[in-house]
């Protein structure tokens, strides 16, 4: 899985209570959802590539 680097991230929110805890909870929730979608897309791509090479006698690229 390739690494992803975030070069610039700005987040603004207003909440009651501990802002850091709220940000951490929401960030973790959404980054985990994004990571799942990304991993699923990578798996689909790999599977599709494997199917395309099926029967051509050369195997996966």
Tally of DSSP helical segments:
1
**Strand-residue proportion:** under 5%
The chain-level structural class is mainly alpha
The helix fraction, in percent, is 55-70%
The major pleated sheet works out as:
none
Mean pLDDT: 84
Rg calculated over all Cα atoms: 19 Å
* Terminal-residue CA separation: 17 Å
Low-confidence stretches: none
Query: What best-fitting shape do the alpha-carbon axes yield?
Result: elongated
What's the β-strand tally? 0
* Secondary-structure element string: H
Write a brief caption for the model.
The protein is mainly alpha-helical and 61 residues long.
Would you kindly provide a written description of the structure presented here, covering whatever features stand out?
There is one protein chain. The chain has 61 residues and is mostly helical. Helices cover 56% and strands 0% of the residues. It is elongated and about 60 Å long. The mean pLDDT is 84.
